[in-house]
Design a protein that fits this description.
two-stranded antiparallel sheet; DNA damage (chains A, B); five-stranded mixed sheet; 2 domains; Dna Topoisomerase Vi A Subunit, Chain: A, domain 2; homodimer; 12% strand; 7 strands; Helicase, Ruva Protein, domain 3; binds zinc ion; alpha/beta
């Protein structure tokens, strides 16, 4: 591809990242090589730092640098509300909208009969345990508007019903087949404000 | 954006690379964090290695790991032909086609009155010096079909004319697999003018 093994190896690694391909990886690597002191060394250091410190919050599954993440430890966020999302990217999307003031729970995927993913494969038992531990009064299901996402929402709603917890979901503004991480802040904000009891 | 300063810094760096944006940077970083041992540490090491070893070939401007690149030192490539390109990415594209067997010369851009880029700002004096040093008989201009690219091609052709070197350029026309309906007028016009008997 290029003329050196090391550069080819770097391009191959970059090309495998989601959202990149061989062409954008080549462009990114060439751009970095041209400004290597300014870009490559800091990026390498930053990757090393994040690789060494990033970890999943044991409570909610968010990614942070401590055993329990900043959102879970913040007393300001302890308002009895938990927003359930599929992925950390969705949690970040919710946070960018700046509207939700409670805490989160990252499932780590959705139930899927096809892929043999049951409640135990997700962070669902931990979600149930948090209901009593944190005096949760409302769970907001912010799952993707996909079949698996909605199946998962219904399953969780059923489990929570027996515990006397109010369950709502993002209803307005989420397009059919849409994924949270693709939505603009205003849409997420509108969907949160218009949430409805399931 | 995320919940930690280090992760935000990493996302910001990735987002500035050509071809990426904030969203693809977030996705790439989350993906890497999930597989950090497998992806982040090797990528960090690879960046460090390339940052430490990558350099421009003093002869042709290609990027490699030695003072003079593998193509310039290869005796197999010393056939009296030099292919002139704007950028290292173009050199790599030519190499992927596997057809050209000579050596290269990377200009590092194009002449531009607007940006005050004259021959001295590019690798044009070095190109002229190579004519005698390497017994060059043909220079193939593989510059982009832009106004600046073609201005640069004409300038170089003029300079080489006085040296008795044959100057050619890549044929313009319909790309293989290309559909006329998707091509711009200039390409169709060039392809028509350069039409050949079947
Ligand atoms: Zn947490
Ligand atoms: Zn070279």
């Amino acid at each position: 591809m290029s003329s050196t093994k090391d550069i080819d190896a770097l391009i191959a690694m970059m090309a495998k990242l989601p959202g990149l391909g061989p062409r954008s990886a080549r462009r990114a690597v060439l751009h970095m090589i041209k400004k290597r002191a300014l870009l490559m060394t800091p990026l390498s250091d930053s990757l090393q730092k994040v690789a060494a410190t990033a970890r999943e919050c044991v409570t909610c599954g968010n990614i942070g640098t401590s055993e329990v993440c900043d959102i879970c430890t913040s007393e300001k966020r302890a308002n009895g509300e938990i927003c359930v999302v599929e992925d950390v990217a969705d949690l970040w999307a919710m946070e960018r909208s700046g509207v939700f003031k409670g805490r989160y729970h990252v499932l780590g995927g959705t139930l899927s009969a096809l892929d043999a993913i049951g409640p135990e494969e997700l962070r669902i038992p931990k979600l149930m345990a948090r209901m009593a531990d944190e005096n949760i009064t409302e769970v907001i299901l912010a799952l993707n508007a996909t079949i698996d996402g909605q199946t998962t929402a219904h399953y969780i709603a059923g489990e929570l019903e027996t515990r006397g917890v109010k369950v709502t979901s993002l209803a307005q503004g989420v397009p059919i087949g849409g994924e949270l991480d693709y939505l603009d802040d205003g849409t997420i904000s509108a969907a949160l404000k218009a949430r409805k009891a399931l």
